[in-house]
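Components:
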Amino acid sequence: MIAMPMRMWRKPLDTAKVKVPEGEVHIIKSRCKGCGFCIEFCPKEMLESSEEFNERGVHPPKVKDKSVCAHCSFCEAVCPDFAIYSVKKECKDGC
Amino acid sequence: MTKEVHPFERYLRGGMIPHIWCEGCGNGIILNCFVHAIDDLKMDIDKIVVVSGIGCIGRLSGYTNTDSYHTTHGRAIAFATGVKLANPDLTVTVISGDGDLFAIGGNHFIHAARRNVDIKVICANNFNYGMTGGQYGPTTPLNAWTTTTPYGNIEHPFNLVHLAAASGAVYVARWTTLHVRRLVESIKKMLQKEGFAFIEVITPCPEIFGKRNKMATGIEMMNWFKKASDIQNNSDPAKAGITPERIVLGEFVDIEKPTYDYLLRDMILKVQKRVRGGE
Amino acid sequence: MAQKDRTVLTGKHFWEGDVACAEGAIAAGCRFFAGYPITPATEVAERMAQRLPEVGGIYVQMEDEISSMAAVIGASYAGVKSMTATSGPGFSLMQENIGLAVMTETPCVIVDVMRGGPSTGQPTKPAQQDVMQAKWGSHGDYEIIALAPNSVQEMFDLTIEAFNLSEIYRIPVIVLGDEIVGHMYERVTIPSKEAIKIVNRKMPQISPEKYAPFKPDKDLIPPMAIFGQGYHFYATGLTHDEAGRPRTDSIEAQKKLVQRLCDKIRKNVDKIVKLEKIMLEDADVAVVSYGITSRAALSAVRKARQERIKAGLLRLVTVWPFPDKYVAEVAEQVKALVVPEMNYGQLVREVERAAKETPVKFLPKLGEEPHKPIEILDALRRAHK
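Structure:
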């Protein structure tokens, strides 16, 4: 069930058919340089800086809440270091 | 524990990643968008040549798993012209910096655009000469602090999209490294377009330019892009000068014009036909 | 209708040197010319502009000599034999990219039709003032090959030789003409296409995965892959290792690379160098000469023989690498050497160095008039006493 923002006065006809994709974020910690772009610009704000250090001495990101990832892949696209990517999870009821 | 493999790993040259670019530098994003575009288009990677000049972004040609060449300062476009004319089956791309393409390389840029040589040019505009420690260049904003403008820059910067359009480029666009989706689409369009195509990508240089100009981190610079960007497709490039308050983005030029390669081949065929006719 | 092959214009012609040079290039397989007009080399460009389209080749007039040299390297890396032609001022502009061509081991030919310098100098007058520049013009340690034609026929023959040498050694080769040889008209005989020996660059024999673009064979020369064949190689002007990776940090990499780039020429001097030895067997005084001056030198040596002076001529067809050993041999044999040059002292320094104790008489010439045979003869007479 998709929560409807107040400004949507009409429910789209194919709402039931369209499923929000689910993604799984993978982080290649050793490559991260700690720029923070993925954390800053994730539309779901589901990433945060982790406590651990990588070899470089920076804190790579970690997933705060993996259930909200919509596989938008913005983190993957905006990462300058090829350190993070999103994999689409297979949806259970076929989509 | 399975090893993490980035989906674009095969486009990256083995043993060269992690690259030398700073934390928060946008050059890696340009590399990312470039290979993303190639991947989306399913291009034959054997036929892509990446040429770059001197500068931080100039190291990009070493990171792509393609036939690559790293030229002398400013001469990437001239080199690329030679490659494309000699083998028109290759997709020849030039990815270089604002100083390399428009200071020392300015002359080669305008002539290649004028001739409409079929090469694809991406300019990483970070408003200074980063590699050598942050001197000013032809795109440094007025009043900016750089190591060779310690009292503020007194030179007016170029409006690169205006320059490219005026020189005759058939495709001109400007994006930032924040607008990754549109940048990928723009690169895809450019790769499929015939003629001299140019994309200016505003990219953060936080360590060197940003730090001295009140934007010490990549995030601050990207947020500036977010705030100041104004996407206006098909607007007049002459009015698209960059100011701290407004960065006009979009596609400025998208026209058709016979390419140098086409005119050259056409001429050669005509001459050969005449010669065959018994001169 | 059978297609006329216009690549080799077999037969006898009456051409100027620049034209013969262009024809030599086309006969050698050159199919790309990028250049900028400059007196006295403009005619090479004009001939190429006219002839290259006939043979399916590409003439592009770039915006300056810097971009011309860059485009020449680009075309060579795309697999096409390429060349440019210029004179002193343009040659100066090209130096940085000549260094790039040396560093990335690019086969290509640069024709320098020398004129009076320095700077803008005397554009329409001959000189031999770029000889040292041909070797030392770019920065850094490197070796180069330079040939000095002394006739219109040699402008044809030596241009072919230049292409062959550049392909074998993966190095830019300079054809050092001068305004006289470039602009004078002489008879040229062009052999049949089959009679012309063409050499092409070594191609890699291994798969792309195993290929290292700058890994040399035993002869110190790496096989050359070109763009578009799936080798995905990286070539850079930075100091690099055999895989082409930049190694700006490594002493070992710098030593290995610079030494190999020089040694591939230094160790092959005997194979590269071409000389003409005239009447040297019993000579006790000799002229060492190259290019246009060698014609007056030959005349002087013949006249000297008529006066019973045992004079000989060592003509350097290859000016770089300098044939130290051969000059030293002649120097040991004779009482003195005479070196006429249309400059104020360039190759004579190399001769002096190789000649060691043997006195060397230098005959400079500045301005458009080449040496007269009598001037060289006089020097031979005095040296002989």
